[in-house]
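Give me C-alpha cells for this 379-residue protein.
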Amino acid sequence: MKVLNVNMSMDPVFGGGTVERTLQISREMSRIGINVVVLTTDIGLSEENKKAFDGFEVIALPCIIKRLYLPKFSYKHVKKLVADSDVVHLMGHWTFLNALVYYVAKKLKKPYVVCPAGALPIYGRSKIIKKLYNLIVGNKIISNATACVAVAVNEKAHFKGYGVDVDMVSFIPNGVNNDDFTERDGNKFRKKYHLGLKHFILFVGRLNYIKGPDLLLRAFSDIQDKFTGYHLVFAGPDGGMLKELKSSVAHFSLEDRVHFIGYLGLEDKVSAYQESALLVIPSRQEAMSIVVLEAGISNKPVLITDQCGFNDIEDVNGGLVVSASSDSIRNGLIEVLGDPEKLFSMGKNLESYVRNNFTWKIAVDKYIQLYHIIMNNEK
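Here you go.
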C-alpha cells in the first residue's frame, strides 16, 4: 500500500497537533511496511527536526508566501505523487496545498480521505478569507471526500454543515508514543528553567486566543492567595498573545509566580509533564488535544474545557471538564488543588486509560482498516 499524507507544515514549533499526528502516523505506517510519502512546505524545517522523519519520505515544497503557506510547485510533480499513491490523506483544511492535491486527486479519480482535526468551524481570524476558501473549494474538498475522519467525537457534527452524513464519519482519535515518555531528569529541567522546588500548574501550547491562555491566567490570579504554594508555567511559542499575557502578569502582580518558558523539545516537554502537579487546557475551541494524552501517559491529571473533545476523562475520573471561561476554570482549580489525594488518583486513572486506549498503533490500525475498505470499493 502507498499512502500520500498531505499537511501544510511539518514545523514542530508552530505546526500544532496536525504536525504531530502526521509525523506519528507516517512513522507508524512505515514501521509496519507501508510506503508513506509526506507532502508539505519547508516552513520551519531544520536539519535537526528532519531527523524525526524516520522511515518515510518528506517532500517539502519551498514556501513563497509564508502567511498563506503558499508553495512553489510543479503540477507535474504533484500529479505524479498522487498518481503513484493508493490513498491520499489530507490533514487540516484551510490550505492551498490541500486544494491543489484535491483537484489533482479528483482529476485522476484517486480516493482521498480528509482529517480536518477540528479545523472546519470558521473561528478566529481571517473569517472572510475562510468563507471565500470554502465557497471556491473548501466545501467541495469535504463533501466529495471518499472518507472523512474525526479526531474527537464532538468533531463529527462539524461535517454536517459541509453536507456530510455524520454517521459516515470515521472516528480515529489521536494517540501517544509510550516510548517517548520515559523517566527524565526533573532536577535538570527545574534548574534549566529556574523553577526550584516549586509546585506548578502547566499549560502546553501556542500562546494564542483559541488556546485560551488568558482564561487560565485570569483564573490563576483569582486563586493566587488561596494556593500560595503553586506557580503557573506556560510552555509554548508565542502565537500573538505573549505581550498581552506578560502585561496581565504585571497587572496581577504575579511576576514571581508565572513563568513563560517557550517551546519545549521532547525531552524538556516530558520533564515538564512529569514535574507538574496538573495540566490545564483552557481552549476556546479544539479537537481532541494531544497534550491531554501526553499528560496522561505521564501520570498527571488534567483540567480541560468542554471545547476540547475529550470529556471521557471525567467518566474515568482522570480529570475535570469545565466550560471555557475564567470563572469555571478558577472553580475547577479550587476543586482539584484542594484535594491532593484526588489529584494523585486522577493521574493514575488517566494514565491507565490513555495507555490502554490511545496509542498511535491503535490509530494506524484503524486507518489501515479504513484504507482497505476504500481500496476494495475502488476495484
